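ingest -> validate -> predict -> emit
validate: passed (alphabet ok, no gaps, 205 aa)
predict: started
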Amino acid sequence: MSLTVSIDTLQHALKHVLGERIQDLQLALGELTLTVKEHDYLAVSMLLRDHPELAFEQLLDLCGMDYSAYKDGADSKFSDAPRYAVVLHLLSLTHNWRLRLRVHASDDDMPQLDSVTGVWNAANWFEREAFDLFGILFKDHVDLRRLLTDYGFIGHPFRKDFPTSGHVEMRYDAEQKRVIYQPVTIEPREITPRIIREDHYGGLN
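emit:
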């Protein structure tokens, strides 16, 4: 089966199985992206895994997204969408096809989505990463805690408004004989690289 025929078959199967639960279905660069609403996310995930026409048995990846910069006109499709989203990449071993699944969290102040660890076990650490880096909460996750940052870390470093230098820094205090946290001492500044051109660099004329 050719790639085009396979994608056409998948598109038809998605429309047949999911129907009105499809918020958006886009084909670009030979890949399908399915967008669903927050309240349909868990039910759609189970259908994607269990329905024989789809059979997405494997979760390859799950990541958080911060679309706040798109509100400045970078992409009109997301200009009115909620700020945070989760994107999943799924694989069907049965049908040998892939799908990108996207769901937006409706609350920008406290983004929260259902956990899909009960659908795909592999989502566990991916959801913890999205919580750690973007602050997206996952309802009914069995162990939702930070995964990559330190225990005393403040904020979520992959949010677009998080400062590059962070909020606190860590150092060893010789007097207290322990590691301590303190406010960042680096002053924010804009650095413009200086380019030096030499006429005969490397001996070339």
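The chain has one domain: 3-167.
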